[in-house]
Amino acid sequence: MAFNVFCGISLDNTKLYQSSLDLTRQLRSFVEMSSSLNTTKTLSDVLTGILNNAQDVIHANRASIFLYDIENAELSMFTTIGEGEEFGTVFAQEAIEKRTICNFSSEEVTLKLHVNAIKDTEDTLGEGSARRSDGLSRVTSVLGEGLSPFESNKSLQGAKANSKPNIVNFPLLTSDSRLLGVMELSCSWRIMPEDIKLLDCFAVFASVSLERSELQEIAKMGATEANMRHLINDEERKVSDIIPEKLKLEEDKIIIVNSINFDAPMFDGKGHFKVIFQIFHEFKLLEIFKITNEKFFRFITEISETYNKVPYHNWRHAVDVTQFINYELHITKLYEKLTNQELLGLLVASICHDANHDGFTNVYNEKAETPLGILFKNQSVMETHHCSVAISIISKEETNLFYTLDSDDYKAMWTMIIRLILSTDMAKHFNFLKETNELLDDHPLNLEDPSERFIAMDLILKCADISNVSRPFEMANKWCDVLCEEFFRQGDLETTHGMEYTSPLNDRAHLDKPKSQIGFYTFVCLPLYQTASRALPPLQANVDQVQSNLETWKAAMESK
């Protein structure tokens, strides 16, 4: 009996001793990783060290880190150590989609690979969906019987001997939960829950290292330079005649950019830069004016950063307006009549036309006596401010798109851009329409006359500025909600300051959406688009859509 007790105590002591050794080894790993974060090692060295320590914990065959490109929703291998089978991003992708730890047993790995193989084979052979369904059903039924899919197929009997590893994936997240990548480990035995908890700590170290590297890069080079390094290589920076590979749009999206069906929110992020690059390259403006990709990228970055995070008058709106001008230039073929300088000026004006908009109207800025309202009193408050912001950016050497122009052309360019931006002030709207219609009553628009070409540019910029009303109704309605939210935001502030509403549209509690849109379409939008179509007949297509949307609003009003 005493011997049994002694043996039991010895076994317990052995376990405790082994546990203490494991804990010591784990603590040593954490100390090493903590120290590595404070050294001047490269990111690759730090992550490799983390993978080595993680690999030791479960004696993994392979340990890898994948980086996630959030703009393109793509994973790519950054570094890997060890040996064994590689399965690409098959399992790491699931950790990205679920944003949580994904632990696959050997059987689950086998199933997932087999299901993917069936899909890939049928896609290659062009099999129908019914055949694919049969294949997946077969796999599912086999698993229900407790067998691997390979065991159900005599031609694959030998595959059982080559059992797949167990795989665990950890999503790597920033402090604000942005996805950075995935840490993946594979081993030949089951990965225990206590091991996963420990490995999760290593994943945190990897996340911190990646985020710290990003911040160091930004601090060292500036955010613009850091972003450019990821999107434009050294050769692409210096040229003007090609779009950088990572800023190219797919063919199907180019078609959308040239159409009325463009939906700006679908291109958010890097997609907006791609749209702007595509439009300028479409008309060869960078090549003609010797604007390098680097200079243009810096310009887009700086001007986009001036746009505030307001509901409507933001960078998304600027891209939306620029795209609509591109669409109008194509359907009217106006680009064939405009000079290259006019074309450049029009598109730059569209990009800059609401720069640093605060989300409040001119009337509010004047009545509330905001700094801008005081500075530009009795002027087009916001439009004048947009011009000054554009001037401050384009006047800098690294973002000067007009550096090749001589003195006279430079002056003419700025005169045109300033006039175009100032013309978007709605206070000038009705007088502009009156004068333009009087000219059109006298004669058709003469595009050989520079002053009348300016009228054409003015018209399409003003149409583009309210282009939402001429897009398909679903888009028009969505944009209406966004604009209403900006009006409500102003109305809330007016109420807080004890002011009367500067517009009934600002009253969050009592807005009649269909009624307000009927008035806006009838008195503002339709007359503008009808005038534009008189000057440029192909724009009648936009008039038809505005009228169609107006009828939809009227029907909504009647059904209330």
UniProtKB/TrEMBL annotation:
One of its GO terms (molecular function) is metal ion binding. AMP binds at H313, N314, W315, R316, H317, D354, D465, Q517. Keywords: Hydrolase, Metal-binding. The active site is at H313. Residues 231-560 form the PDEase domain. Gene3D superfamilies: 3'5'-cyclic nucleotide phosphodiesterase, catalytic domain, 3.30.450.40. Zn(2+) 2 binds at D354. GO terms for biological process: signal transduction. Zn(2+) 1 binds at H317, H353, D354, D465. This is PDEase domain-containing protein.
